[in-house]
Amino acid sequence: MGVILKVLHRSEKLKKAPFRNLFLDMEENIHIHYRDLRIELSRGEFEDIVNTFTKQSAELMKAIKDSNYQDGVLPNANHEELRIWTDSRLENDVVYHPHRISLEECTDGFHLHLRNYKLLLERDDFHVLVQAFKDLDLDAPHASTMDEIVELLDANDLHYHVEESNDGAFRLTVASYHEPKIRPILVGIGMDRTASGRTQTFTKDALKIVVDYSRDRADFKEHFVDAPRTVTPLTTVLAARDKAPDPNWLNAMKARVLDTFTLVANADGPLTMNLDFNAWLYDGLYDKVIFPFDPAPEKTDIKRAYRDWSKFLSSVDMYFVKPSKVPFNGAKQKALYDSVLKAVNRTAAAVPAISKIWIMGSALNGTMGFYKSPFIHSEWAKLASDVDLLIEMDDSKTFTPPEDWTYINVSSTNGCAIFHIGELPFSDVFGHRKEYPNLKYFDHLIDAYVYFPAKGNKEKKDAFLEKFKARPVFDRADEINLRTALESAFGSTIERLQKLDVATENDLYEVSIGGRNNILKVYRVSGNYSSTQLAAHTAYECQLVGAIKEFGGAVAAIRKTTDGHAVFEINGSPAVLFEKLDGEELTPPHYPVAEAAQALAHYHVLQIDNDVKLDTDFTFDPTVDIWHVEFERFAGESEGDEKLVVAFDALRQVHTGLKETYGRISGQPEVRQVHNHGDVQPRNFIMMDGTPWLFDFQNAFHGPRIFDLVEGAIEFSWGLKDPKDNDFQRYDEFVAAYIDATVLSDAERDSLNDALKVIGTIKFIKEVRMIKGDAGKNNLRRRRALDLADFMRRRLTLETTA
What we know:
802 residues, six-stranded antiparallel sheet, six-stranded mixed sheet
């Protein structure tokens, strides 16, 4: 579960364990005896253990058998970690002696009591324990030299090699199956970490360690000298029918074969290795394919030899076997889907003959991920999930495939032509490119089935789309309808129309009309309000923007239709045409914090000074109602993440009285009510001539202005894409700059921490929602949630019991 950061004491002076029993007994309470350990339990605690152990042990035994798990790092040096969390939360607290530590001499030996645990020791072993505690030096520093770190690696039983480079740095090569250990060890002793691809660099003062990984067990053969070794014909291993090979192992083996063939094919001269698969051997200890010596390699037809190998794989049903896939988290799934839409948009715009594009498979289902071994299919090596599209063509238009499209063949399944039309990048977290350096890899390959109505079978195509529940993501008819609607609304010819690649659930387009550049927003989602209120809130948003613009506010103007309307309709959805702000986006970590806070204050002051009168029906009530009820649900779903459990435990004190706190703020006359922007974050500002301009008022509501203030202070304390940019010192900078620009009443100043309770708790829940299913991973959303919770604990002096 953990790694050793400092060896406080270690010796081999204990005698052989005298007890070999595992039994239960019931006296004044219930005992579990395991060798020299006794655990003292109440009935409720025992029932917890029985219930959990029964379920978890069954799951673990199945995993042990399915994977043919072997103990320790020998002989199979397991890389995989498996933790089973079924019913892991114990309902009952420790009942017997929850705070006790006791050392006792008894009739049966010496006892060490720690809470409800008892260790029974004989006199000699107890003397060893006493001496060990005498020798402890808790204040001794962590390892700081390379020799001390080597001792620490040995204490953690790592397999590694270390050598000193000419520049004074140390290069540390670690067995890949120990990769999960090395980072927490070096970071735990205070080293700073930077990463470039799979290589990591750790520094502390003058010490620099460059860490890389090797999957080749032969690199660490000194650790395998006592392990049994078998060398078997590879065909025998693959043809064995008693147990199908692990798909990750199979694809890794196929990758090694393809890498070798590629090396031979690209060599300047013949290489002396036998490429007849019947002659290959498999070394089970070092997990290697052995290619025997060939005295006459010039006679080998490389392509034919690889075809023969492929035919053999087909004969044993191993030609097309996918390795295990590690799914991306929810935020990454969405980002990839957005990237697919961007690529589709570029593709559709570039090829006029395309009439419609459908998406299916992993990208549609949210199951995109990367492979634990390269996925080898024929001569292709894939690192991550494909993106599957079906493209319908318009036969009335000439089709010329773009240069980056590669024709493959015609699918027998649906009669469509198959093209590879592009890739989305992937970082190769497992280092496959280094391990198999001769392969040409695909990242997220974009595969397209291209349907030509004149040549294809419509029934087959439609059945194929129905089978995979495909979704249309581009329709040329929509673009034509959009142009028609815009030209009708504004009485001018559309000079340019381009969909924008922006992470939003609404549709955004850049539109040139009448010589002016605009941003068209077609509203698809209603934010924190019922979808039935989407049109009404859009009208309210436009009225608010119009009023602020009238009084000189730095906001994007709205271009009205020929009949004077700000909001018009496109395919049943409300739409607004805004002027395009040509400026610079705000980028972390050097945000213009003061300028943004002052711009927000100016936006509020304009309303107060000019007594802006708008509908006040849209309040913050629905937001509080929606997210208040989600707190416990996401707390329950986060039980496997210790740090989030602590965060929820602290914020539960705030959540308990959240609605009362909200009501107290809103009910004070001295707390100024304005039309809040509702989404004060860096991406909703544009810098123009040194002034931040606000845009995107879709979450506007009427309520206490300090809600906008606190939200802006939180959002500007976070980074954008890198959690290292989170810095809650900016919170106070934002608040101070706002107060410099406008006067807060005493009631507003006194309510700032209450506003933090309301806004902070809601934003914390929203961030946790985005990491659902990724408990324990140090991703952006998790770090944002934890950093916010930590700030709230300190600012609001919240206590934790978790």
